[in-house]
Amino acid sequence: MKKLWITGIICALAVSMAGCGESTTSTTDSSLNEEPIVQEQSTAAETTADSEVKEENKQETVESTDTAATGDLYEAFKNGDAKVKYTGNGDRTSYLDTKSALKAGESYTISEILSALEAVSENKSSSDVKYTDIDCGEDGVKELLAEAQFGEEFTLYMIIKQIDDELVMCFDQDGWSRSYVTVNADGTIESGGSSGAAVHSVDYAFVDQNGDYKFYYGVEETLTLYGDFYAYKNGTDYVTISTEGLDIDHLGVRDYYFDADYENRSHYYSYFVIDDSFEDVTTDSDYDDSNELKKRFTEAGIETYTKAEMEQMVKDRASEIGYKQ
Known about the structure:
- The chain is α+β, with helices and mostly antiparallel strands and 325 residues long.
- It has helices spanning 48-70, 73-78, 98-101, 110-120, 292-299, 307-321; strands spanning 84-86, 107-108, 126-134, 143-150, 154-163, 166-175, 179-183, 188-194, 199-207, 213-223, 229-234, 237-241, 251-257, 268-273.
- A six-stranded mixed beta sheet has the order 2-1-6-5-4-3. A six-stranded antiparallel beta sheet has the order 7-8-9-10-13-14, covered by helices on one side. The chain has a two-stranded antiparallel ribbon with strand order 11-12.
- A hairpin with a 4-residue loop joins β8 (188-194) and β9.
- The longest helix is centred in the N-terminal third of the chain and has 23 residues, at 48-70.
- The two termini are 37 Å apart.
C-alpha cells in the first residue's frame, strides 16, 4: 500500500494571526517604599548629606528588588539559570521525541532538555542552540524561539513563553533533512516535507497570545496517480481506489485535514487536473458527477469537494480558531 506521509508540525501561506502575551509580577516589599520610623533624635553626625545617601541607597534597593522579581527569564534560561515547564501541549515531535524524554508538568533547563533527548534519541548529540526573540500575534510582548541543533541533520524548534513568573514550552517540533519547520516572527508555523517526487505535504499552525498552540490545517498533495490510490475515511481507516484506465499523468488529489493527530483526523479530498507542466487547469465541468475519478471516489464511499468548497472550509476554520488571513 502507498502510505501517506505524515509531517512532524508545523505554515507557505502568508498569514498573520492573533498572538502570545506576557505578564510580569513584582514581588517588591511595599515596606521598602515607606519612610523609616525615627526612634531617637538624630545626632549631629547625621547630616543632610547622610540622609540623602540613605535615600539613594533605599531607592537602589527598591530597583534591585524589582529587577530580581521581574527580571528577564528568557536571558536566565539561555544562561542555564532558569527552567521551562514542559506540558506536552503543542508537541509535534517525531524523531526528537520530547514526549518520551520529558515529563509533562516538570520543568527543565536547556541542558537538561538536550541531555534527556540525547538519552532517548540514538546517535543524536546536541551541538548548538540558537535563540531568537519573536512576538506571537504582534501584541508587543516577546516570546523566545529556541532552535536546538542535533548533529547536522536534526533541529528541535521550541516556542517558550513567560506566563506569570514561569516559562512554559508552548510548541515543539523537529525538522530534519527531508522535512522542514518554519517559525515566523509573529508565531505562525509552517512545516512540511515530501514522500518521493509526487507526494508533498504542508501543515499550518500558530501559538496565540495566551501561549496556546492551535493547529490550522494541513494538506497532502499527490501529483499523478500511479497505481491504486489509498483514500482515508477517518484516521487510519482507508479504502483503495483504482486508477486503471484514467489519464493518471494529468490527475492529482489533495487531502485536507484540520486535526494535528493523524490517527484521529477526518479527511477531505479534492481532485484536480494538471497539464504537462504540472499546472492546475481544473474547470468547473471537471467536478460534474460524470467525471470518472469522482465516480470512483463516490463508489468507494468517499466524498469529494471542489476547489471553491475547500477554500471556504479553510476560511471557516481560520475564523473558528482566530487565525487571521
